[in-house]
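Our preliminary data section would be incomplete without showing what the modeling component actually yields. Below, a chain of 135 amino acids is followed by its predicted structure, encoded as tokens that our downstream tools consume directly.
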Amino acid sequence: MSRHEAIRTTGAPAPAWAFSQGVRKGPILQVSGQGPQDPATGAYLHEGDVKAQTRRTLENVRAILEAGGARVGDVVMFRVYLTTRADFAAMNEVYAEFIAEHVPEGEPKPCRTTVFVELPHEVMLVEIDAQAVVG
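Predicted structure:
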């Protein structure tokens, strides 16, 4: 039987509701959807700036990955949720920079899908979750 554990870190905001920041079962690590929140205060940051929100959100995801023993290069799938198609190019630019910084040259880039939705807080322009296989 694989070990099943909740992942917790102060490097990402505490969950607002009844779920874990991340869960690892054996080599699989799932990171709950993260938004553009300050890890220390939980305050939403960078209102109206999808680039800055995307970077903050990816850093929150990365903190949980690392707390669970993974790195960005271990991610097999990122899911990006945006509130509007008009933000796609700006989000994609920051996402590509982040992947280039955290996935070594020659390694496969994680898969990704982007979905356009209404998010739980009006200030949120982006939410991102991830699934990684560790080891």
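DSSP finds two helices and six strands in the chain. Strands lie at 4-7, 22-25, 28-34, 75-82, 111-116, 126-133. Preliminary results of this kind motivate Aim 1 of the renewal.
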